[in-house]
């Protein structure tokens, strides 16, 4: 048992959870790409419609959401004991459990395990945890090739790109772009794409199938994540739509699973709830075409060596925050991304983390520390659509406000000079605290009408320029409410 489990430790090697630039700068770049916006708009509208249809079929959907939230909260309240139970069950069934404090430790563990087999390549099931820690890059540095087998992940890998969506990593690519990537890159790393390849989905999927079949049949080691782990039996679960996961989980001799410590459910009965919530919220399906479950090692059937790497990487620090820990309920369905007006216009790359969209805006800053991702809590309009869509009822808008407060406190703690926002609030408090000052401020605001055109102010003088750089400011009315009241009812303003 890890001695640090449950203690709020500061992550050291956080992996791919922050970008090189803040969200505002990255978002401006994305907004300037009309093709990206068309791709995102079409894809998110399609997924939203499918999800809405299958969710409407379930009469007790709100009760299922409440059950999912309650189960996850119970897991977080009992996390140490449930993790010990999981370790005991996995070990009893022939597996080996490893504990990783952060991304660096997890990468070192997996690299060492692969090297011990003598293999120089692995096949991978789609995994957010391994993306989070940057496992592919760590394996490459050790001379080990990691082949993504999920179709969308394969597109991203062959395109030397980064994922931009939790469920559909290549959502920012259209069919024509995918065809060009396959024709240009497949032959460099394996079986080439067929000559005359078209951009029809069936043809692209067949090209990927033929390319990957050789990888599946030759690989001796597979790496996976886990959607869920059942504590009382040591069972791991992966759900997917293509069958690539099933191939990775059954053909290789050695299987290494990297799992965030929050992915637990206590019992099989609890798993039943999430196998109803997840497919409807993610792919808009009643159930996933492939639900793979494995428990330890079965002699003569499947991998004969199984390793489970339990990953912290900032999760215990998140657990220590009563107002932020609900982010650990997340089951990575991506429903919040598909309804978010900010994500639909900027895409996932603008967030700089492998967790984009609303959940990334609350999860990434907590895993890394808010100072390292200070702009993400502001990547939201606080419209609340994410909360309505979340299958485990994470109140993301309220959490965003909480994290914005933490960002402000962190900024103020670094020096005696307040930030621009704090200065503006203090100025407003000074004006509002005296009737005469407030009346004068309201009347002075009328000067803004001189800057307006067509009912809006497109630019204001510094230091307020940053506000109107991304927003239109309404022109002040010709008469304030206070002046109207005096005119209509008499008395002083």
TrEMBL record:
Residues 412-487 form the Lactate utilization protein B C-terminal domain. Residues 85-310 form the LUD domain. Keywords: 4Fe-4S, Electron transport, Iron, Iron-sulfur, Metal-binding, Repeat, Transport. Gene3D superfamilies: Alpha-helical ferredoxin, NagB/RpiA/CoA transferase-like. GO terms for molecular function: 4 iron, 4 sulfur cluster binding; metal ion binding. GO terms for biological process: lactate metabolic process. InterPro entries: 4Fe4S_Fe-S-bd, 4Fe4S_Fe_S_CS, FTHF_cligase-like_sf, Helical_ferredxn, LUD_dom, LutB/LldF, LutB_C, NagB/RpiA_transferase-like. Residues 327-394 form the 4Fe-4S ferredoxin-type domain. This is L-lactate dehydrogenase complex protein LldF. It comes from Motilibacter rhizosphaerae. The lineage of its organism: Bacteria, Bacillati, Actinomycetota, Actinomycetes, Motilibacterales.
């Amino acid at each position: 048992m890890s001695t640090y489990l449950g203690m709020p430790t500061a992550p050291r090697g956080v992996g791919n959870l922050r970008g090189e630039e803040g969200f505002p700068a990255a978002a401006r770049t994305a907004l300037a790409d009309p093709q990206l916006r068309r791709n995102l708009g079409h894809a998110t509208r399609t997924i939203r419609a499918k999800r809405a249809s299958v969710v409407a079929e379930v009469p007790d959907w709100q009760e299922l959401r409440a059950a999912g939230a309650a189960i996850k909260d119970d897991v977080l309240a009992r996390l140490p004991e449930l993790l010990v139970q999981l370790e005991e069950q996995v070990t009893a069934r022939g597996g080996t459990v490893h504990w990783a404090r952060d991304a660096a430790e997890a990468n070192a563990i997996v690299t060492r395990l692969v090297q011990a087999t003598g293999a120089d390549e692995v096949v991978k099931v789609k995994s957010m945890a391994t993306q989070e820690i940057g496992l592919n890059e760590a394996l490459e540095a050790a001379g080990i090739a990691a082949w993504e087998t999920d179709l969308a992940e394969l597109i991203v890998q062959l395109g030397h790109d980064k994922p931009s969506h939790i469920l559909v990593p290549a959502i920012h690519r259209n069919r024509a772009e995918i065809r060009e990537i396959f024709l240009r890159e497949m032959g460099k790393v394996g079986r080439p794409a067929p000559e005359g390849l078209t951009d029809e989905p069936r043809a692209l999927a067949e090209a990927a199938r033929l390319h990957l079949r050789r990888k599946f049949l030759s690989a001796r080691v597979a790496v996976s994540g886990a959607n869920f782990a059942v504590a009382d039996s040591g069972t791991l679960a992966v759900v997917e739509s293509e069958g690539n996961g099933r191939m990775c989980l059954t053909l290789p001799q050695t299987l290494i699973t990297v799992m965030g410590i929050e992915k637990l459910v206590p019992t099989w009965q609890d798993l039943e709830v999430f196998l109803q919530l997840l497919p409807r919220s993610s792919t808009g399906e009643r159930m996933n075409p492939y639900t793979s479950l494995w428990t330890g090692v079965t002699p003569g059937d499947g991998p004969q060596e199984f390793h489970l790497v339990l990953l912290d990487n900032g999760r215990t620090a998140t657990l220590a925050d009563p107002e932020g820990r609900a982010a650990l309920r997340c089951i990575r369905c991506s429903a919040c991304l598909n309804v978010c007006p900010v994500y639909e216009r900027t895409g996932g790359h603008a967030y700089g983390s492998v967790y984009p969209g609303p959940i990334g805006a609350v999860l990434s800053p907590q895993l890394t520390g808010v100072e390292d991702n200070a702009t993400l809590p502001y990547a939201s309009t606080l419209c609340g659509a994410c909360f309505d869509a979340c299958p485990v009822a994470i109140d993301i808008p309220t959490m965003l406000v909480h994290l914005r407060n933490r960002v402000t406190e962190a900024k103020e703690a670094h020096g005696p000079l307040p930030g621009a926002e704090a200065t503006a609030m203090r100025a407003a408090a000074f004006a509002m605290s005296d009737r005469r000052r407030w009346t004068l401020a309201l009347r002075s605001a009328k000067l803004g009408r001189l800057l307006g055109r067509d009912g809006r102010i497109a630019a204001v003088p510094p230091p307020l320029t940053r506000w109107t750089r991304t927003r239109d400011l309404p022109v002040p009315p010709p008469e304030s409410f206070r002046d109207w009241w005096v005119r209509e009812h008499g008395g002083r303003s």
